[in-house]
Amino acid sequence: MSSPSVVGTAVTPRTKEAVSSRMSVAARLRRDWPLILMCIPAMLLLAVFHYLPALGNVIAFQDYNPFAGDSPVQAFLHSEWIGFGNFQYLFETPAFWDSVRNTLGITAFQLVFYFPIPILLAMLLNSIMSPRIRSLVQSVVYLPHFFSWVLVVSLFQMMLGGAGLIAQTAREAGFTAPDFMTNPDTFYFLITSQAIWKDAGWGMIVFLAALAAIDPNLYEAAAADGAGRGRRFWHVTLPGLRPVIVLLLILRLGDALNVGFEQFYLQREAVGRDASEVLDTFVYYQGISVQQWGVGAAAGLFKALVGLLLIVGANKVAHKLGEQGIYAKK
Amino acid sequence: MTTLAQLKPRRPSGRPVWEEKPSRLGQLGKGTVIAIIIAVVVVPLWVVVVTSLSSTETINSAGGYVFLPREFNPSAYIVIFQGGQVTDAVLVSTIVTVIGTAVSLSVTVLAAYGLSRTGTLLHRPILFYFLLTFLIYPGMIPSYLVVTGLGLKDNLLALVLPAAVSAFNLVVLRAFFMGIPTELLDSARIDGAGEFRILFRIVLPLSKAVTAVVGLFYAVGYWNTFFNAVLYLDRNDLQPVQRVLQMFILAGQSPTNAGAGTVVHLPGIGYTAPPNLAIKMAVVVVTLVPALIIYPFVQRHFTKGVIVGAIKG
């Protein structure tokens, strides 16, 4: 060991990688084994409940039959390999393409109607002078983030449903309010307003941080040069927010096939399959309810692969635009 | 550490001299928007709580949901906590939340500390192993087969183990641990402390706030667990609160197995059987209250660094 030791060999500074690289593997193992040991429980859990199922996606290429053996592993070993048969079946199923269309439609809809809301909220909050009102608003809008989807959908049901508060108030005033909870035509609006109610306040945090990082002198200098509110917004605020906006846009695009599961699962009965089926619910109903395991897994694998491509692609675009993206360019 | 409350917009005190005076109309508009935003969040919660505490007469005269409280009638709560499905569910959710959070927090803290120093052996491959979970998803069907294959059907561990490690929380904790001065840890090492002792005696006491936030994140996740219960739990007495909420509010099940129809004695009010609507609303309140209780802690401790670092992944 070439590093300076204070008490025998037990103490070795680990701050500098240069020092580590000059040590032999055995010496590093002797030094670092407790740290490696600490990682093992979490690694084991992920191995069993994350990576093993990820590998298990290969049943997409099987005519998986759970009764072919006593355990899923036995069944897996005894099920017949059918190549791309499940995918072929999947791509010929109109319901699958309906779910893809719904998923992408919802992503597009939310990019337009959801994405700007946290930005606007952050700017509104930033313009509030009184610290007390500001922290009151913050406390209130962050709260629904911690509610479950079941709770959020239930609250919407109680407010907007056929027997909800709004319908009840309208009835007393002699009107009939439409039931938004069961109308497939307004379903995109419904789920987007639920998403806004739950998470727009939380999503604001990132933009608040970005706004706080803008140098106040820039505003003053712009004002001294005669820039009004609008100009200051355009030339100071927006450029300050740009990196965050681009980053989150990329993340959302990379996640285009993930629109959530529980929200749709919970409302499928009320609005019907046509309006509410997204890729994740398709996987569930095809795979677990109808027990076409292979086809469900094929749909899941399709989603995972396209999703991976989207993330990598979105990062490429980010790097091209000179932004950092989710992972740094190597 | 910057707390959210300190995440101050650009002006610490008052309006700078160079800024235009706001127009009356603008201020009024802003005030209205803020009031509407607050009302949209608060009114539903208010109505739920008030209705859950109302008697049959109040609910009937209001035509359903009650906005203005007329009495404090806890009979719905007494009924749902007298045993039956809701009582079971609260118990199940509490157990899952406590055990789950303990498991998750322990393994995450250990791994985050294990990865907190660059240059240790296998540091990069192990970090990559955790980060890869962001890109590779397990898929619902194989997950279902693995969990049921391990014999976890109708076992509460099925709600805990698959959700036990969040690489996101791990990254958050690790980033914080990395910010602790190395001199501090080196001096402990000179004094002969092992890694475990350093973690529990030095690192953790210095990271109480961020550890609490991560713990609360896990706890909220476990309390809100729903779909894993749909997948893995068939037995009625094992359902967590979110499932019961779904049955009563969304699936329109009548809350008789929550004890509706039971007559309770309330001192000062006499004997009453709480209305079904009040029972349903009481179930909503029960699922909501833990989030309300832990929320102030999250807000106080939540750091700017946590959020931004987390977003960067």
TrEMBL record, chain A:
It holds the Pfam family BPD_transp_1. The chain crosses the membrane at residues 33-52, 104-125, 146-167, 187-212, 233-251, 293-312. It comes from the Bacteria. GO terms for biological process: transmembrane transport. GO terms for cellular component: plasma membrane. Belongs to the binding-protein-dependent transport system permease family. This is Polysaccharide ABC transporter ATP-binding protein. It comes from Actinoplanes cyaneus.
Automatic annotation (TrEMBL), chain B:
One of its GO terms (cellular component) is plasma membrane. It comes from Actinoplanes cyaneus. GO terms for biological process: transmembrane transport. Residues 1-21 are annotated as: Disordered. The lineage of its organism: Bacteria, Bacillati, Actinomycetota, Actinomycetes, Micromonosporales. It is a multi-pass membrane protein. This is ABC transporter permease. CDD domains: TM_PBP2. It is found in: Cell membrane. Pfam families: BPD_transp_1. Residues 90-298 form the ABC transmembrane type-1 domain. The keyword Transport applies.
